[in-house]
Amino acid sequence: MPTPPLDRDGLLDWMTGHGLRPQTHDHPPVFRVEQGHAIKAALPGAHTKNLFLKGRGDRLWLVSARQDTTIDLKKLAKRLGSDRLSFGSEAAMVETLGVTPGSVTAFGLINDVERRVQFVLDRALWTAAVVNFHPLTNTATTALGQGDFRRFLALLERTPVVVDFTGEDGPAILDPVADPVPDDHVASDAPTHSEEP
Q: Whole-prediction pTM value?
């Protein structure tokens, strides 16, 4: 494993060095989901919102969900066995994920070598052909095909808590092992440009 904290360049070099195929697009800083709609419209794949949360006993959680997913923190806390979930501090965010507010991303798990942060992933992202996250900075978006995203997590030896947020009874935890990469996502694993050749 590289020595944390990695920055954008270190992250992308690590990815390509491990055979992953990230595609990164630079853009003006984006601090909130609604700010990035115009940018995201030009980039294929599922776009995300990422919450850095603190639970009971100072447990830390990173929740990555598709940008249009509704997350009820009270119901999620109950499902995760926490009495409540609140937003984690900037200091804890920097210390564990190596990012500042506005740049929270699943890719920050590369900096969490002590595994202090539990990773919760929306099933909508677990099954998307392409996922988009900030590469440790909110001035760019990096796309990975689903197979590469799962390899990224496997290389970090991180198994997400996969949650289906769409149920009428609130979020439901799924078994990620029983939800393999969809066959139609394997053949076209690499992100593709939206422009015609």
A: 0.87
